[in-house]
Amino acid sequence: MQGIKTFIPTELKVKYIQSLLGCGFDTIDFGSFVSPKAIPQMVDTAAVLDQLDLTKTQSKLLAIVANVRGAVAACEHVPIQYLGYPFSISENFQMRNTHKTIAQSVETLKEILALAGAAGKEVVTYISMGFGNPYGDPWSVEVVGEWTERLSEMGVKIISLSDTVGTSTPESITYLFSNLIPKYPHIEFGAHLHTTPTKWHEKVAAAYQSGCRRFDGAIQGFGGCPMAKDELTGNMPTEKMLSYFTAEKANTKVNAMVFEAAYNKATELFSFYH
Fold this sequence. Notes:
This protein has ten helices and nine strands. The chain is of the alpha/beta class. The protein has one domain (10-272): TIM Barrel (Alpha-Beta Barrel). β2 (60-65), α3 and β3 form a beta-alpha-beta unit.
């Protein structure tokens, strides 16, 4: 929702997220504690949380934070289990996204880890531009490896490799996950992939077959990074991933009937607000 200019009423956000909470997903990325100037759509995240019925769900809640102030706000809410922090290994993207250098971002992440630890929450660190970037910043699988080592030393336990603008290939996905997962057994690695409509299968398959078991998705691929150069590059479609996992006989714990209802709700919502 964050890229949609028209404000989506709080009650519609609540209804949509409520439908997702019934599906059986491990985690729902439900909102962001970020500057209302930067992302006006997320100004009502606390209000949305207050109105969610969490009595019948096993799903955990994740909120995105971009700075210490956001982390402090998120830590005040007991139901939130994960704080998601976008950490870019592209200096240009980090500046565009959070107005910080990478060095400043390291210090911010240290503070967020301490805050989360004190509040009994976990931090999901997204390595933005994890598969390359369009800005000419140095990128290689070695750079990703070096940053994983640094984050591990800082105490990061969950790292989501993020294909922020859709530049990943099955080769780079396979190489990174098959090397990093065995090397850092104490870290849970995730795949936050963006894709064009024809490339989703090869990307999911590469990550899954390389040992990744944490995947981010958005119904019908709605959203995506506004900085992606190809307008066909969107988020990884949840329904496509589910079809792949079903074919692989993986137990996602997702109830297909409940998901179909949530899928229909997404179609209704995002055909009106887009």
